[in-house]
Design a protein that fits this description.
This protein has 339 residues and is of the alpha+beta class. The protein is built from 15 helices and 12 strands. The protein has a 7-stranded antiparallel beta sheet. The protein has a 5-stranded antiparallel beta sheet with strand order 2-5-10-7-8. Helix 5 (153-160) crosses helix 7. It is globular and about 65 Å long. Residues 1-19 have low confidence and may be disordered.
């Protein structure tokens, strides 16, 4: 990670008005075994990426912590650890970056972080907000998957005010804004290619806006967020993910999505309508895409077409055949025979 430099120039900025500039790259995954790295080397590699030194590591973690994936955009950074570190001391940022980090343990895990003498515990579903400008100590005892997102302090401060970022604190995922932030941050790690600069800036802005809502936006911050698209985009992504996870449910509809997102059915319809679609069309196309993938996968176990249709939530075989042929120019049986 660097401050200013070539990345800033590409965006038409100077180091004086940039609050955070990270290496602009697509998703980076590192597996210790594949890379021929030891445990300490893996931690050092991650530390160099984010500008920190790790010390006080434990031998117990050496047998668990083997990989992480990271994506850095100019003003946002997300890292997913397959297994987080239980014990460590993380130095202040060595690259001169003043960042705020939101660390989120997966269900069944917990984080116990200490900073400036304040100790915070967050169990699966909650998060810990902390600074990267000061030393952080971990006392965690039950650590699994951890998602960590770093954002510029100055950018967040403009939305929440300085007092909200003054000390380490817990954020609860009972808050819909926190859940939206986590969902949107996870989607960042699914990017397969370099996003263009405009998209990268938009993602950074939207993560900051969602984080501000989770932390507690000031009145001016709320007004700025209302005028943007972060909430709508994050909710749309959350709706898509919920639908894809529940395609096997034959009666899946806007009511189920609305209940999961804690919004009204009409708000769900608006999410898809603003994008020139409908929730019914999205569900149908997602089911067809899943069915096609299952039928055309030569490595899959032999499946009957009727079973595939049921697994994808189709209640009528005639409707399934008709929609499949319209979408792919062949019948489900013909797609299966091509394997």
């Amino acid at each position: 990670m660097v401050f200013g430099g070539a990345s800033a120039a590409r965006h038409g900025r100077t180091s004086g008005d940039v609050c955070m500039v990270l290496p602009f790259r697509a998703k980076t995954a590192m597996d210790a075994k594949e890379a021929g790295l030891g445990f300490h080397e893996l931690c050092d590699a991650y530390g160099r990426m984010i500008g920190h030194d790790y010390s006080d590591l434990t031998i117990e973690d050496a047998n668990r912590v083997r990989s992480f994936s990271n994506i850095s955009l100019p003003e946002a950074c997300a890292t997913l650890f397959d297994q987080g570190l239980s014990r460590f001391s993380m130095s202040d940022n060595r690259n001169g970056l003043d960042l705020v980090m939101i660390s989120m343990p997966a269900p069944g895990s917990e984080l116990i972080y200490e900073q400036r003498g304040i100790c915070i515990t967050a169990r699966g579903g909650d998060a810990i907000l902390h600074s990267t400008a000061e030393r952080l100590i971990s006392h965690s005892t039950q650590v699994g998957e951890v998602l960590a997102v770093a954002l510029p302090r100055r950018k967040l401060m403009a939305l929440v005010g300085p007092d909200a970022l003054g000390h380490i604190r817990k954020l609860t995922m009972d808050d819909p804004a926190c859940r939206l932030f986590r969902c949107y941050a996870q989607s960042l790690l699914t990017l397969e290619n370099d996003p263009d600069f405009r998209l990268a800036d938009r993602i950074g802005d939207q993560l900051a806006e969602l984080a501000a809502l989770a932390i507690g936006a000031s009145r001016p911050g709320h007004e700025q967020i209302r005028e943007g698209t972060a909430l709508q985009d994050a909710r749309f992504h959350q709706a898509q993910q919920f639908i894809k996870r529940n395609l096997t449910e034959p009666g899946l509809n806007e009511t189920h999505v609305a209940r999961a997102l804690c919004i009204s059915p009409s708000a769900v319809r608006q999410l898809f309508g603003r994008r020139g679609s409908s929730i019914g069309r999205f569900i149908r196309e997602a089911r067809l895409a899943r069915a096609y993938a299952m039928l055309s996968d030569p490595t899959a176990m032999p499946r009957r077409v009727v079973d595939v249709a049921a697994d994808c939530g189709f209640e009528s075989m005639s409707a399934f055949y008709s929609a499949f042929r319209t979408a792919y120019g062949c019948s489900p049986t013909e797609a299966l025979r091509k394997n």
